[in-house]
Amino acid sequence: MKRNLSALLVIAGVAAWAPPALADKGAEGIWKLDNGKVTVRVSPCGANLCGKVVALKKPRDDKGRPRLDKENPNASLRSRPVIGLTILSNMKPAGAQSWTGTIYNPDDGYTYRSEMKMQSPSTMRVKGCMAVFCKTMKFVRVQ
User: Fold this and answer.
1) Residue 11 — very low, low, confident or very high, per pLDDT cuts 50/70/90?
2) Are the C-beta atoms of residues 67 and 61 closer than 8 Å to each other?
């Protein structure tokens, strides 16, 4: 009986010192592209999710000016900074840990249909497609 009680106390002591398990946050949070080029905050926007650029690896152009949305097909939007742009829009639930919507690429000014899918609590795959051509990017949770 003493041995069982001792074993139980040891197990309880180890459990008390173990770090808490990560809560499943879904896609909400701050994510960095695996190459570090862009950091995005994914958060609710209405009933869906959206992603806004919160940081860039190179936030300034060669002349030291903030990077702008200069490839936007709408000329009146070309002077807005990339940091602060919503690039993931209208991401609706599409199954377990998966969402579909659109992604805007300020590098070329195009908006693509998109899918976000959680791979683990700390990694997410984002795919952007035009017709049958797709590009998949891996994001790592920062926060």
Assistant:
1) very low
2) yes
CA 68 remoteness from chain centre: 21
What is the residue whose two structure tokens read 């936030």?
59
**Sequential DSSP letters for 82-105:** STT-EEEEEEEE-STTEEEEEEEE
pLDDT (average), residues 21-29: 68
CA pseudo-torsion sign 47, 71, 113, 54: negative
All residues at 6 or more sequence positions from 43 whose CB lies less than 8 Å from its CB, including other chains? 28, 49, 50, 51, 52
Confidence of residue 17 (pLDDT cuts 50, 70, 90): very low
Output the six-digit token pair for 77. 């939007």
Residue 4's pLDDT is what?
41
DSSP 35-61: TSSEEEEEEEETTEEEEEEEEESS-B-
Dig out the tokens for 23 from the structure: 């809560």
Please give the radius of gyration of the chain, using alpha carbons only, rounded to the nearest integer. 21
Tell me the pLDDT of the chain averaged across its residues: 86
Q: What pLDDT sits at residue 25?
A: 66
